[in-house]
Design goal:
Strand content: 25-35%
Number of helices: 6
Largest sheet: 8 strands, mixed
Helix content: 10-25%
CATH architecture of the largest domain: 2-Layer Sandwich
CATH topology of the largest domain: Pseudouridine synthase
Radius of gyration: 21 Å
CATH superfamily of the largest domain: Pseudouridine synthase
Shape: elongated
Distance between the termini: 12 Å
Order of helices and strands: EHHEEEEEEEHEHEEEEHEEEH
CATH class of the largest domain: Alpha Beta
Number of domains: 2
Oligomer: single chain
């Protein structure tokens, strides 16, 4: 499989309060941040701000304390886990990323980040041509949500029906809702890649730490 997509737009802005932003950067506690802000020691995009309720984006705004740019003070941990079962769903398994890097976590979970995620899907019956076309073009999955186009292919399986699907968003229970929208039921679901990082031969229940190159691969799409 080649390149899945090219992102032309940055992820949507996600704002947090200024004290929380300083805390997330590991510079101080929220209570200490309140003191720094009230003393006029914190700047946002070059302007001093004494407003502790100000909402800022760690991805898009430039924060400074005492004139020095606020940067994270420690290296982050990023772990690839082959999860035997998924969150709140005993039939979901596969690649899960665990990290204390809030920026990476936000980029991976924000639907506007367009990070591709590929799944192997077991179904109760074969999809017809109309169902496959709907999945590939994007469809209404309820609650006012419509999916983006997906890459969908039938695969050989020892038993049952299996698809591989790559999506570029991460709505709640999205795969199951997509299948339900075309009259199919998911009987097994496994995530096999995020960005360019693949589950590979990592045993079920095992984990490993990612190196710098692998961390970057998470956001390649």
């Amino acid at each position: 499989m080649g390149r899945l997509s090219t992102r032309s737009e940055p992820p949507a802005r996600r704002a947090v309060s200024l004290p929380r932003a300083l805390s997330k950067l590991g510079l101080c506690s929220r209570s200490q941040a309140l003191g720094l802000i009230s003393e006029g020691r914190v700047s946002v995009n070059g302007r001093v701000s004494r407003d502790a309720s100000l909402r800022v984006s760690l991805e898009q705004d430039r924060l400074s304390v005492d004139g020095a740019e606020a940067r994270e003070t420690r290296d982050h941990i990023v772990i690839a886990l082959h999860k035997p079962v998924g969150r709140l769903d005993k039939e979901t398994s596969g690649l899960l990323i665990l990290t204390d890097d809030h920026r990476l976590g936000e980029a991976l979970t924000n639907p506007e980040g367009h990070v591709p995620k590929t799944y192997e899907i077991g179904l109760d019956k074969p999809p017809d041509a109309t169902a496959l076309e709907s999945l590939r073009n994007g469809l209404d999955i309820g609650k006012g949500e419509r999916t983006r186009p997906a890459i969908v292919a039938m695969t050989d399986a020892p038993a049952g029906v299996r698809l591989t699907m790559t999506i570029h968003e991460g709505r709640n229970r999205q795969i199951r809702r997509m299948m339900a929208a075309v009259g199919l039921a998911v009987v097994a679901l496994r995530r096999v890649s995020i960005g360019d990082l693949k589950l590979g031969s990592l045993p079920s229940g095992s984990h490993r730490f990612l190196d710098a190159t692998e961390r970057k691969s998470l956001l390649v799409s």
